[in-house]
Design a protein that fits this description.
Blueprint: E1 3-4, E2 14-22, E3 28-37, E4 40-45, E5 55-58, E6 61-66, E7 72-78, E8 84-92, E9 95-100, E10 108-112, E11 141-148, E12 156-167, E13 170-180, H1 184-187, E14 192-194, E15 201-204, E16 215-219, H2 223-229, E17 237-247, H3 249-254, E18 263-282, E19 285-305, H4 312-325, E20 329-335, E21 345-351, E22 358-369
Antiparallel strand pairs: 1-6, 2-3, 2-10, 3-4, 4-5, 6-7, 7-8, 8-9, 9-10, 11-12, 11-22, 12-13, 13-14, 14-15, 16-17, 17-18, 18-19, 19-20, 20-21, 21-22
Amino acid sequence: MKTLSASALAAYDGSYAVKVFDGNTFSELGGGTLVLSGSTLQFTPAAGLSGSTAASATVSAVCENTDASGKAIGVVAVIDANRHIDFFSPAFSGLYTSGSDLGSSGNRYMQGTTAKTSGGAASPGASSNECAPLVAKAGDSVSYRQSSNQAGSTPYTVKYDFSAGSYKGQAATVGTVSVVGVTAAQAGVGNFYLDPVTGVALGQDAAAAGANDTVTSYDPPDWQQRLTNAGIPGGSSGKINVSATITGKSVTDAFAPLGGASAIVMKYEFVVNRDANETVSTAAGSFANACKFRVEFALKDFQVQGPASTSPLLATMLPLLQSSFAVPTNTTLWTSNAVPFMLPKSVTTMTLAAPVGTVISTQELIAVTKAPR
């Protein structure tokens, strides 16, 4: 194949919806998004694609792709001796892209049958996925205001300052939380820990005083990223199942009278619908081309693990515990790849029992500082 200059890739910059297939059975395994920006390839798996993780790769060489007659039909982006991605323009045999699956080490391949949805490199400091917030890094800072129409509620602000640190022996970006207007316990927030490369949540401290050893872990750990990806491409919908496991002092103390508990496990189902991108205005400024999602979520299961799980008294308490979390909830949110960690804005509607009724809560970005990238 004829070797081309790296600039030949520029015409193919953009985001491609792809499907991943088993290389042995040729069966479809799921979907994802492939983004080409300059010489960087970024793959993000969609919800339900098992055995796959978000991954990036650098193009090491660019070659001309030709058909059987020798006519140029696109380019081959060579990653290494074993991996490459083909890009076609116009589509060749119905394909706009085809090649190695970047999200797994198994015998898989991916193909895209729709044209790219955006082009060009991301804006400075922005992530390659238009809907994914920037991965937080040391030096970032974001603040938001939380308000509600519920009688007696108090507006408050939360600020996240990010620094380099560790979590359970591994490197982490630490999100330190400060709250004004209410206590951290009332706001339900606490310091948390993120993977410094992927931004995946590693754990979180409890907000309650005296329970600093209490952490919440998630399965899948990258559920927030998958939640965003579930609504791609625009107009589609998807479901995400998430388990939240809470362990530590507050759990142990709360269930001590019943014999003790090692963890609380809550399983949620999120249903995601994506609307057309639009500009969203906040106190921190306006964000053009923000991704808009409508999300419904519900509690599907509530478990107490440990000795208390066999207590007859727990059986009588479970319906009450479950009902406190099983509130019909709908959220409209806007995401942007110009903001670290946070969403520019979200509006949540909860339907509570009478006499409270419908409660609308708004979370809005009021300040943002981005470290150099």
